[in-house]
Specification:
Layout lengths: L8 H79 L8 H10 L6 E11 L4 H11 L17 E11 L2 H12 L4 E14 L2 E12 L7 H16 L2
Antiparallel strand pairs: 1-2, 2-4, 3-4
Amino acid sequence: MSNINFVPDDYIQSNESRRANLMCLVLFCVVMAGLAGSFVTIKIRQSACGAQEKLVNAKMAKMEESIKKFESLQLKRKAMMRTALTTAELLEPVPRSVLLASLTNSLPPGVSLIKLDMIQKEGPKSAADRSKNKYEAAPDKGGDPEAKPSAEKGLETRMEIEGIAPSDLQVASYIEHLSNSVLLHNVALVESKEKKIDDAAFRQFKLTAMLDREVHLTKDDVDHIRSKAEQSIFQF
């Protein structure tokens, strides 16, 4: 017995057409949703990249500014060193320019001086000096009437040296170099503490030393110290 379909063909075609249209609409919505999601994702990534680029540019600008300041400080320091070496000529057993040149020559790599104070005062006199002064003050008792006490030999020169170094190893090396110098004695470390410059850690140190009153430098010694100091300045 054959099946008799009482549903009109027009109704069946209409249902199939509606289902096809619904499927096309769903697929269209899915495609549009994917495109919208991709667009939003791309925009978010572009914003993140833009923010990161601005941060990198800001850091680079800050670093460039720090480098310019550092170069300016280096130029000022070189000018100050040259001025000190050429104008600090005093009537002393050891000219201050020569002493400053000797301190510069002893600097290990990476170490810089930031402050130098020199304090002169009359040192304690020995028994021989007191006896000599006694006879000099009384020439009628056998003393030489032409002899005069030397004020220079009775002066002590104490130095306070401040600087910065990458680590305490360079500070110890600088102390060793100064201790081996013929100009100085009693070199001692007063303070060594951490100091940050542009997010970099350094050691800020303070030393004391005494100038040897018995030292005698020849012209060749002075010329050698100064020429070596000139070379050290250009190596900074």
